[in-house]
Amino acid sequence: VQLQASGGGLVQPGGSLRLSCAASGRTFSDYFMAWFRRAPGKEREFVAASSPAYHGVPYTYYADSVEGRFTISRDGSRNTLFLQMSNLNGDDTAVYYCAADITPSRTQSPSGYQHWGQGTQVTVSS
C-alpha cells in the first residue's frame, strides 16, 4: 500500500487542523492504520491508531498526550485516514506520519508498521 499524507501547516495555539492520509494499492479496509509524529530532537512517537472495522466499527487508540483532543477516523469509500486535531499547543509541533500494516506486531510502536507516508509538518505557534 502507498500512503500520501497532507494537511499540515501553521496554526495558532488553541487552533485546529485536520490531517489526511490517502492510501492506494491494496484494500484499505484490511489495514491497521496509525499516525505517528516526530518533534525536533525527539524520537518518532505514537499518536493514534485505528483498527480495521470489526462488525462495522473500528477500534481506536490514542496516546495519553492527545486523548480528548485528537480524533482518528477512516473513510473506506475514499481510502483515506484522517486525524482531526483540536486545542493544539506547542508540544504538538512535529512532522506527522501515517502508517499502515495488515497485522502490526506492535500497534503503538513505529517498528510495528511496514508502510509509511512521507510526513506532513504541523507547526503550532503564535
Q: Which regions contain 5 or more consecutive residues with pLDDT less than 50?
A: none
Q: Spell the H/E element sequence.
A: EEEEEEEEEEE
Shape: globular
The end-to-end span amounts to: 37 Å
The helix/strand class is mainly beta
Q: What is the CA-atom radius of gyration, in angstroms?
A: 14 Å
Biggest sheet architecture = 7 strands, mixed
Overall pLDDT score? 94
Compute the number of helices: 0
Q: Helicity level, as a percent range?
A: under 10%
Q: What proportion of the residues form beta strands (DSSP E)?
A: over 45%
Q: Find the count of extended strands (DSSP E, 2+ residues).
A: 11
Helices and strands, with pairings:
Blueprint: E1 2-6, E2 9-11, E3 17-24, E4 32-38, E5 45-54, E6 57-62, E7 70-75, E8 80-85, E9 94-101, E10 115-116, E11 120-124
Parallel strand pairs: 2-11
Antiparallel strand pairs: 1-3, 3-8, 4-5, 4-9, 5-6, 7-8, 9-10, 9-11
Describe the protein in words.
The chain is 0% helix and 52% strand. It contains no helices and 11 strands. Strands 2, 4, 5, 6, 9, 10 and 11 form a 7-stranded mixed sheet that branches. The mean pLDDT is 94.
